[in-house]
Structure formats: C-alpha cells, structure tokens
Write a structure and sequence with these properties.
Elements (H helix, E strand, L loop, with lengths): L1 H22 L6 E3 L19 E16 L2 E8 L8 E4 L3 E8 L10 E2 L9 H4 L5 E8 L4 E6 L5 H6 L3 E7 L9 E10 L9 E3 L3 H6 L4 E4 L12 E4 L4 E9 L4 E6 L3 E5 L7 E4 L1 E4 L4 E6 L5 E7 L2 H7 L2 E7 L36 H19 L17 H5 L1 H10 L1 E7 L2 E7 L6 H16 L7 H10 L1
Helix pairs in contact: 6-9, 8-9, 9-10
Subcellular location: Periplasm
Main location: periplasm
Cofactor: Cu(+); Cu(2+)
Amino acid sequence: MKTQFKLAAAGVAAALLVVSRSFAEPALPVITQELVAPPLLPPQITRKSPARVVVNLTVEEVEREIAPGTKYTFWTFGGTVPGKMIRVREGDTVELNLQNLPDNKLPHNIDLHAVTGPGGGAAQTLIAPGNEASFTFKALNPGLYVYHCATAPVGMHVANGMYGMILVEPKEGMSRVDKEYYVMQGDFYTSGGYRAPGLQSFDQQKAIDEKPTYVLFNGADGALTGANALTARTNDKVRLFFGVGGPNITSSFHIIGAIFDKVYFEGGTRFQEQVQTTMVPAGGSAIVEFTPKVPGNLTLVDHSLTRAFNKGAIGLLTVSGADNPAIYGRGVKKPLPGAQASASPARAPAPAVPAVAGQQLRGKTVYDSTCAVCHQDKGQGVPGVFPPLARSDFFKERPYEMAHIVLHGRSGEIVVNGEHYNGVMPPQELNDEDVAAVINYVSVAMNEGKPVVTPTQVAEMRKAR
C-alpha cells in the first residue's frame, strides 16, 4: 500500500513538474546596457518583448570642478553627476551589478525607485570599497524614476552627487522624437561661498538648514552652457528627461522661450498639455516634450530665479535654423512721442594704467572662473539674458561703472549695443586686484582698449558704497 502511494505521489509530482515547466517563463535574451554620460542617454527601445538587462555600475569618488576654479569631491555613479541613465522596458528583468572601487573611502549602495520591494535594492547592494554586489528586479511599472545612494547619512551621499534616473519604457514603446536629453537638478552645500576658489568641503549645517551654496543642472556650474549647451534645430521634437536628485530643493522647471507641448508629470504615463513651468520634487521627475519654432538660445532655469542667477541653475538649448518673423519678430524700438532719447552721462576719462602681461593673465584667469559661465568664453553673452562684454558700447563708455557692477551687483534693465537685457548680477566675491585685473582684461582683450582701472581705484569704489 505504501509502495503504491509512493508511486502515485511520484507520478503526480512528475505531472506537476511537466505542467510547471510548460507555464514557466521562457529564457530571456540577455542585453548588456550601454551606459553613456549625461546629458546623453541610451537610445529608444524598439524590441517588443522582455529581456534580461544587465547593468554594470561603478561607484567613483572623484575630485573635479563644481565651478570654474572651484573644486569639490563628488561621490558618483559611473563617474558623472547625475549617474548614467538606465533605460529598460516594462516587463524586463534587470540584473544590477554595483562595484565600489578599491580607491574609494566609504561604503555605498543604490536604491532605485523603480524597484518593487523594501529599500529598492539598498540592503542587497551595501558594500565597502573593493567589493561588488548584484541583485535582480522586475521592471513592473513604466515611468521615469530616480535612483540614489541610501547609505547613512543619506542626505550627505545624495548632496555629494549620488543620484541618477532609470527609465522604464511602457510595453507599447514611446513616440519617436528628434532629440532626447537627460538633465537632473541637485543642490550642493560647500564650506565656501558661491564660486569661492579652491577645493571646497561639504558643509553639513548648510545641508541641515537647507541653504545650498549651489543649485545646479548636471552637477556643475555651466554644465549646460557654452560649448556644453544642448542643441536642436527648428521644428525638431525635443524630449527632456528631467529629474531632481536633491537632497532638499524642489525645482520650478522652466525653459525661457518655450512652452511644453506635453509634460508627463511625476514622470508617469499621463500628461498635461501646454505647460509653462512644472514643479518637480526632490526625488521626483518629469518628462517634457516641446518643438522649438525659431532659432536662438532657449534658457533652462529653475524659475525660483535667484537659484538660476545666483546659484547656477541655468542651462542653454541652442536652436539653429531659419528665422520665422511670423512667429517671432525682431521688434522695433523708438522713443515715445515728445521724449528725448537718453544719453549716457559724461564720464571723466579713466587714467591710464600700465599694460602688464601678468595682470592680463590674471584677468583672464578671473574671467574664465567667474564671468565666462554667463557671458560666455569670448564675451559674446546670451541674447536676451546676459549682455555681451566683447565689443560692448556700454563697457567702452563706462568702464568704471562695470567695475562698480562687479563689486556691488546690478539688477534691472540694461541696454548694450542697442539691445535690451533684464536680469540680475550678484556682487562678486573678488578682491581689489582681481576686479582690476578682470576689467582690464575685458578692456584689452575684448574691446581693443587699454587698461582702465587700478586696484587702488577699485578699493575707493568699494569704500564709496
């Protein structure tokens, strides 16, 4: 009887094994994720079935510039801030391999908001330098999700740059676009002030008080300006994957000169149309789509505007193509009836200052580290945002006033070469010698002039305020 029961049980077990195998998920093709540095990201997914996606991420503690002339020790995923974007498809199985490089000094891990499970992978991946951890998860929910380090103190790890995003494309895929970019905002807390030179350390009390020194796109002051500006052509469909690493500050994300055709709010699958500014929380995201219609520079900002103009949250999308006056006219400016055109007040000629090669070199160094991020490397400025310093009628006529602006800042409208600009320039934390050097550098190198101000005169301006 027992023998018959055992045989019957064995038969049932064999049958169940056959049934279970018939319903088992077939072996998935294995794809190793190609990771690229932001603002670029992996290409759109075209496959129509799930895969096992292998993601190899390194943790790298690196010292590099947070602003020109200012260094900071970043903790990163893959050596970049933000960490390199991961792009998978709904239903994929993701195998994540995390290496904490031997030269690092601290333990790290990763918490992915796309993971369904406690800690988002943090417990499985907590490792000391010189170790590797692996775990797998199923990408169940489509959307754009933040990942970050969750090692204590979590706020410090995130504030040092340990965040990125993972995009889980829906099964049906995403619509085709001409340009895709990956941008994240983060807040940084340094011991020195904004653009203070030298190597800066992390300031824990500033972080606790939520008073960032910098609020930045892609981990550096000027990361998306000048030669690093994003690019598109008129009538391109542009898609930005935007997120906020934090650790603390919410973004009022806006592009000056563009209206978002669609905003997939909270990084999900539903969208709002015709949006001017979208709120993105720390640890959150949004997908924005828009189509530039005319050429020029579109300016990315956090519309909490002192963050843009005083803490670095500014970037550019340079659009090329033909003008379209029917959409954006050049405009006409003239005096009101009965009004006289204002003239610049007469200025006493500045005393000659000896042209010294060493001072020009010093002036260029100050310009590159302090001025170039806004006024651009050759002083050409940004149309409608930052006035030019090169070939500038304002500078040539009023060099003393330019030195005064560097010392004390300026807000409100300014007219340069007949064009109107309306912005804010904060006072610069420069000593008298550096102010004189940079003013003389701009005069000689950009305006075919001569040295126009001395450190002694700068000191007198400083006292006169």
